[in-house]
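User: Quick one: structure for sequence A, then sequence B.

Assistant: Sequence A:
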Amino acid sequence: MPRFTPIFAAISLAAAAGACAPVVATQGFQAVDAKPQDVVAGTDTKETVLARLGSPSTTSTFEPETVWYYMTQMTERYTYNTPQVSQRTVTEITFNKADDKVAAVRTLSLADGREIAMQRRETPTRGRQLTILEQLLGNVGRGQLPRTEEDVPGQRRPD
């Protein structure tokens, strides 16, 4: 038995050390041959950017033809914790409207982002709020009355 104790301790330490390694995930644009930061303003055009990088992650809401965004994000997750963003890169490429050449290339990182505090308030709806009893018994008595010979099919009897 004493002979297996060091082996068991070594296996336990290896398993514990392996459990501390984060699970790394990459989302968004992944550069294969070229990076978005390698685009040169004034020489590259829309066609060369599309050929080199592919389609953008998203475009500008108000100027979709002139501003393109390439976004990449890496997250790390330890065991059962929520994922934490460890690295984020957003490259904004702006084109001239006249000749479709690159006017500017701007790279933003995780440090350039801002935290937005979410509000827990709710927008009130119009009307009155029903109690549980009103919800359960609200339709009692509103059903169709039994049909007679003088009823027209599909119409409700007058009360």
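Sequence B:
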Amino acid sequence: MTGRTPTGAGPWPYAVWALTRAWLLACVFKVVTVAGPDVTVDVSVIYRGWYETLLSGTYPLDDVTWQYPPGAALAILSPALLPFWEYATAFFVVVLVCDALVLGLLLYAGRRPGGRAAGAWVWVAGVPLLGPTVYARYDLLVTAVAVAALLAGVRRPRALGVLAAFGALVKGWPALLLAGVRKGRPTRAAWTSAALGAVGLSAAFALWMPGAFAFLAFQRDRGTEVESLGALVFHVARHFGWEGRVELRYGSMEFLGPYVEPVSTLALGLAVLALGWLLLWRWRARVFAVRTPAEAAFTAVLLFTVTSRVISPQYVVWLVGLAAVCLVFRGAAMTLPAVLVVVSAGVTLLEFPIGFGHVVASDAWGVALLVVRNGLLVAASLIAARRLWRSTVPGRPRTAATAAAGGQPSRAAR
């Protein structure tokens, strides 16, 4: 022991977190006005409406904007924990508490042997760059579950499995946290606990209220949302006489018109290719370091985000959280993709809510913002995939640096 304070420790992460979160609270409470549409309407109107429906004893069966797994009801009902405040105020406080918990988890992990504070700084900086939207959606709550799952999984694969299953039943994407668990006993423990947890929780939600899985039918007819990668085709095509239009559908602005269906189908095809690559990587991977589950989850969520028909601004908080976990570990291979994600968060704020009118109009400024934001995410995806492959798939002799980073061949490769 040297007695030195670890890099990044001390009061600074807490101080910067407090200042930036005070700004976010000022935005959602409308002390500070951010240009563009009012992002808090989703909480005060849509979430509040779902809250009343859920309290009546059923899921929103007749509302096609309800496109979430059954566990999302817990996030929507969470303000009931603070009954002395009105719904929106209580919701913002719940999100603030989860934000603080993530910071605490990252700082605690950073103080462990082999840890560092860089992950906490990614979280401190990345979240406020998304602006008030990050506090006006329930995605930060799901991200908190994912961060806790990955950090717990370092020593307890079963905890990772249970938390991943719970997160998947709240939003879906946390199922990808299981992709990078080390082969052998850890995989069996994590995947078995996830399967049992998913079955048990699904049954519980189905028995709790009618309509737990009605969301599956609502998702079927989704089109191409204006902020997605595929939407860039139509943003450009509008300048060359394309006859389509933008319309509010399923709670988001989507393109409708000629060729939209083929582009949406192409996006699904790209998602299938991403899944195929992920399965191939899983089959070929042999060297699993302590950081590999986080890096695999980060890469997987990046790939499925950029190939999605919908890239809502709040999706970026998933990536910020996973990037933060990756950078908790010394020797992390995901530093550049993490930086690109953090930069994309700032561009996302310019795109929504500040420049959303330009995006919907497909003017030069709106298209430029989308090209930059989506380009950053595509670049982060490709770089992360390449680095994950190179750090885990045999192809060259293991170096001293790889060994020092904690890489271990899976049991199947021994």
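The longest strand covers residues 245-249. The radius of gyration is 21 Å.

User: Thanks, that's what I needed.
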